[in-house]
């Protein structure tokens, strides 16, 4: 199967991010698309727990996230119970007393049926973030029930840079207003968001959790909370099966085209029946003795069946002279 080439980053409005997002969209939608290096993931929460201490607790997000999460729950009609997973390792501090992320592995997420809220993630080693996300959700629910992935209070540098420079900068509304920006497949900003660091996590999650060509990201929403704070929402859904092609009789086929309710042949995309071309001059080459092909053929056939037999001498009859 031949695929149309994806334009190079230098020709796209959002460069490398948009280029990467276009590839992710193609890989998730078409299993035959070449170049995908994301394999199906079989990492489990038990595998992660061998090297990291995972804490599992029932409970809702912390107070600083209550408003944000409550807003999403109300919009999507999500219900509990909540489950929280957290883990960390490699904590070190800089000379200024700040936490160093050089060797830091940290994760904190909240899970509802159909939704995964990620509030903190740093990875220096071990499984990929997409594999951790899949393992955490799969430990509580079937992976085919996952519909929404949220990143709360985003501080990832690559993702935040794109959102602030290319989405918020184009909006003239006050910084304190709550705004939602929705993007869909085929749009440049959708591809660029899918190609950011956090977008790549969700795209890799879809590629690692499901057979290619069965599920994809259908919408990306940027929720602007206050000033420069925002969260990201990625919606995941099944890819609808392609409808069968409309009926069309093959050239030379003896099958008639289906008829509609009015008894006429339906317009189903097939070729219309060919009509016999009428002669421009109906009296041209007219032969009054011509009796039609069928009658002439019957006459010839009947004549060909007549067989002449030789005459035999008649026997004399008794009493005859």
Automatic annotation (TrEMBL):
Region spans: Disordered: 242-321
Top-rank lineage group of the source organism: Eukaryota
Protein name: Uncharacterized protein
């Amino acid at each position: 199967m031949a695929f149309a080439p994806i334009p190079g980053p230098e020709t796209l409005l959002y460069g490398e991010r948009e280029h990467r997002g276009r590839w992710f969209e193609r890989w998730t939608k078409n299993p035959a698309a070449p170049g995908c290096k994301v394999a199906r993931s079989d990492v489990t929460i038990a595998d992660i727990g061998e090297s990291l201490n995972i804490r599992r607790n029932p409970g809702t997000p912390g107070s600083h996230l209550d408003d944000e999460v409550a807003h999403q729950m109300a919009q999507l009609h999500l219900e509990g119970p909540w489950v929280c997973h957290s883990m960390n390792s490699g904590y070190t501090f800089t000379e200024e007393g700040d936490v160093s992320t050089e060797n830091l592995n940290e994760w904190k997420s909240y899970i509802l049926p159909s939704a995964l809220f990620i509030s903190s993630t740093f990875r220096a080693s071990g499984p990929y973030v997409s594999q951790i996300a899949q393992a955490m959700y799969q430990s509580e629910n079937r992976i085919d029930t996952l519909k929404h992935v949220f990143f709360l209070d985003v501080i990832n540098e690559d993702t935040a840079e794109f959102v602030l420079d290319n989405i918020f900068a184009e909006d003239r509304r006050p910084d304190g207003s709550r705004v939602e920006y929705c993007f869909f497949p085929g749009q440049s900003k959708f591809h660029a968001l899918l190609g950011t660091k956090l977008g790549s996590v969700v795209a890799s999650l879809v590629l690692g959790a499901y057979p290619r060509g069965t599920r994809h990201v259908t919408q990306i929403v940027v929720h602007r909370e206050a000033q420069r704070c925002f969260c990201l929402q990625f919606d995941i859904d099944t890819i609808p099966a392609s409808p069968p092609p409309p009926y069309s009789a093959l050239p030379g086929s003896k099958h008639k085209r289906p008829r509609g309710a009015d008894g006429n042949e339906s317009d189903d995309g097939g070729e219309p029946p060919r009509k016999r071309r009428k002669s421009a001059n109906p009296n041209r080459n007219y032969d009054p003795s011509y009796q039609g092909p069928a009658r002439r053929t019957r006459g010839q056939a009947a004549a060909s069946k007549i067989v002449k037999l030789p005459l035999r001498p008649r026997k004399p009859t008794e009493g005859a002279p």
